[in-house]
Amino acid sequence: MVGSMDELEDRVRRQLYRFQDLADQMKAVRGRETSEDGAVMAEVDGNGALRDLHFSSAVSRMTPAEFEQAVVSTAAAAARNAFQRRADVVNRFNEEMAG
C-alpha cells in the first residue's frame, strides 16, 4: 500500500517511464537472418515487416524457384527471430511489473 501522495506519484511516474521504455524497446526489435549459402539476408521489424533485403552474387546461379524459396525462407526465419526477441522484451517487462 502507498503511504503518501508523493509515494503514489513516484510509483506512477516510474511505471509510466517503464511503459515508455517498453514502447521504445518494441520499436527497436529487429530480426536478421542470412540464408545458409549467404545469397540472401533479410531483416524484419518486431511486427515481421520486411525492413531490409540484400542479395549476394550467388543469386545469379539460382533458378527462379530457388531464389523465391531462399527469399521466403530467409525472411520467415528473420521474422521468427524478431518475434522471439519481442516475446523476450514483453516477458522481461511482465516480470518487472509483477515484482
In N-to-C order, the SSE pattern is HEEEH
State the CATH superfamily name of the domain at 30-98. Answer: Nucleoid-associated protein YbaB-like domain
Q: What is the fold named in CATH at topology level of the domain at 30-98? A: Ybab, Chain: A
How many helices? The count is 2
Q: Strand percentage, roughly?
A: 15-25%
Uncertain segments are none
Count the beta strands.
3
CATH class wording of the domain at 30-98? Alpha Beta
Q: What is the architecture of the domain at 30-98 at the second tier of CATH?
A: 2-Layer Sandwich
Question: Rounded to an integer, what's the Rg over CA atoms?
Answer: 20 Å
Beginning-to-end CA distance, first to last residue: 14 Å
Major sheet attributes: 3 strands, antiparallel
Strand order of the largest sheet: 1-2-3
**Shape by Cα distribution:** rod-shaped
The quaternary state of the protein chains shown equals: single chain
Helix content: 55-70%
Mean pLDDT level? 94
Secondary-structure content class: alpha+beta
Question: Could you please describe the fold and organization of this structure?
Answer:
This protein has 99 residues and is an alpha+beta fold. The chain has a domain at 30-98: 2-Layer Sandwich (Ybab, Chain: A), CATH 3.30.1310.10. The chain has two helices and three strands. The protein has helices at 5-28, 64-98; strands at 30-34, 40-45, 50-55. A three-stranded antiparallel sheet has the order 1-2-3. Helix 1 runs antiparallel to helix 2. The longest helix is centred in the last third of the chain and has 35 residues, at 64-98.
